[in-house]
Structures are given as C-alpha cells and as structure tokens.
Amino acid sequence: MKSGGVFVSFVGVIIGFIFGRSLGFIFGIIPGLILGIILGVGIIFGIDPVNSTSLANVIKASSGVSGNVSGQTQPKDVATYPSVILSHGAVEITNSDGLPPSLSPGTRLRGTLEVKTGKAGSLRIQIDSERSLFIEPNTLIRIPGITWESGELAEIQLIEGRIRLRGTKPGRFTIRVTSLLFDQPWPVGDVLYEMDQEHSAASVYVLEGHVKFSALNAETTVEIGAGKKVTFQGQLEDGEIAYDVLLQGRKVPRGLLSAVTEIAANELKLWDLTEELNKKKRMSAVIIKRKKDLEQLGPGQICRKPKAKYNECAWVCLDNRPGETKGCAIQTDTGRTSQISHASRIRKSLKSARCVRLRCLAQGEWGDSKVLASDEGLLRCQAEPVVSVCDY
C-alpha cells in the first residue's frame, strides 16, 4: 500500500464532510465518498496519485495496463544513432534536402541518404547499439528514410559495390538489405554483401554467423555458415537484368544460384587486414574529435562551425564563387549578384551559390536546414557564416 492512496482517500472523506454540512447527505457526503473510492484505487494498485500525471494512470492501472499514459517508451539511443563512426578517402553523401551532412565522427544521420564512395573511400555507420554498417570503396547505397524522432530505418539499398554488416544480436527494429537481385533481413554476425550490376551478379560472404540466402522472390534457398560464400549469377537482356514476372507483379531474376563454397584464405586475410587498419583509423578519428571538443566556446554556446547558442540561426553560403571574400554570389533571375562583391556579374552558365539557414539544436548540432530564395539569400548571406537570432 502506498501513502498516496491513503492520502487521496482521506481527502475524499474531508471533501464529503465539508459538502455534507452545507449541502446535506445526498448532495454532499455521497459525492465525497464516491470521489474517495475512485481516487483511493491507489490503495489497491499501489498508485501514487500525487506523482501521477493524470487520472488516466489510475484507470490504466485498474485495467492491468502498465507503462506511461501514451503507451510509448523512447529508446535510450534515440539521440545518438544512426551516426558516423569513421569516414576515409573520397566519400559523397547527400540527404533528402540536397545538403551534404558532416562526416565527422558522431554526426547523426537523418532523412533519405545516398552514399557513394570512391576508389579509396569508405564510410562506417553505427546503426544502433547492436549493429554497424561498413561501406567499402567503389560502392553506391541508398537509405530511403531514417526517421527524425527515433532514428529508425527499414531498408538499405545496395545499388553497386560491397557493404559489410555486423550485428551482435537483432536490433530494436527490422532492417532489410536489398538490391536488384536479393532482399535479405539484416543478419546476426559479420556478413559482406556484393552487387555487380554490369555482370548481373550478387554474392554473400559470411565471415561470422549463419545466413539463409535466396535470389529476389525465389523459392530456392541455401544456408551459408561462417567462412562460406555463395553467388547468384543473373542473366542480362539488352544490357539489363532479366526477370520473370509472377502473379501480383512479383519479379524473380533469371539465373543460377551457385553451390556454397569456402572463402579463399587470401580474401579472409585481406578483410582481417582491412579491419585492423579501420581500428587504427577509428582511434585517430577519436583523438581528432577529442581535440575538436576542447575548442573554446563562448558563454552559452553549444554549436560549432560556426559557434552559436541554442536556437540561434546561422546563414551559410554554399558553393560560393572561388576567391569571393565579401558577399555570397547568388544568381537571381535577372543575373544580378550581391552588391557587396566588386567582381563582375556571374555568367548564367556558372553554378550559383546558395544561402542556407540552419538552427542550433539542443544536442549541439546544426539542423532544420532551409535553402532560401535568391532575393532573400542575397540579403542574409555573406561569404562567411552569419549567426544571429532566428527569424522564425
């Protein structure tokens, strides 16, 4: 029995007594006793109404439903994941608003993302506390959407190249890894998926764990253990992957699934060496991040590059003209550019600069970005970022 239930029951009796003296037995004492009984449910169910947010808590307790009133609990890692662990070499990443997110370690990723790595480029992303994604060189992937509220995603599309997936156990939400030739759930273990559109081939290498694999919508499935691999060799027609279309529009790629074979020792050794190099790179990145975190911020400032306080806005000029030191060379419909610049007008064939407004969020990161119209951008942006009170 909790003290809150006794307290509320006592209050009900007192109310009934007070009303009773002025309104009589029927209109005073009886309503007071009813109120005492309703709120006194806390005696039976251990609810402390003093600390409850509403009467709904008492009602939920009496019906055997646990949890908060909304029935929803926010995961602990919402503010952290998915986030960048390490970026190396040539990596191009764009999100749904067309602006490239920062690739510094710890940067949270949201919205629709497309990642392209160069010949020596790679990117590692921590999906959640249990899973990580390593995007290898010469690879193109697309993530259709990462929710802003919880950081969840449903799919990773492998367009071309190789990705390495690690997971110690199933995460709190389901992710599928897809391509033009397969559709697989995120595995538990250490698994590498490869897609070669030019030759219509897809391969799976299982370094740790166990995977069931089949071609897209196909019935034939093989089981792949640790140290094993399998390849699906599709067919091409006029340079495109050939499919058979089944009922309800389901497509099955034409081709053959190879036998399960051992991964060559030299391949395993190469991946082990790659992982060792990645560990060293991550350590270097952590050291660099710590140095950046020690950069001096002014009173109340929480955001960097540029420095700003919570809820302040920054107007940043992107793709500015090389050598421009004063204005933001934004091209308008009439060909007019910023009057602050003393250079000649920009030719219409050149790419125009853009003025982007961002807001300093509570996590100390820049977000809520918006590309301003040309005329407004000319008034707001300079060659260097401008930080001031938000205009919305």
Question: How would the global form be characterised?
Answer: globular
Using only CA atoms, what is the Rg? 30 Å
Oligomer: single chain
Counted by DSSP, the helix tally is 5
Number of strands: 26
CATH topology assignment of the largest domain: Jelly Rolls
Query: Would you state the CATH class of the largest domain?
Result: Mainly Beta
| CATH architectural name of the largest domain | Sandwich
User: Distance between the terminal alpha carbons, to the nearest Å?
Assistant: 51 Å
Strand residue content: 25-35%
**Largest pleated sheet:** 14 strands, mixed
Overall pLDDT level: 77
> Strand pairing plus helix content: what structural class?
alpha+beta
Helix content: 10-25%
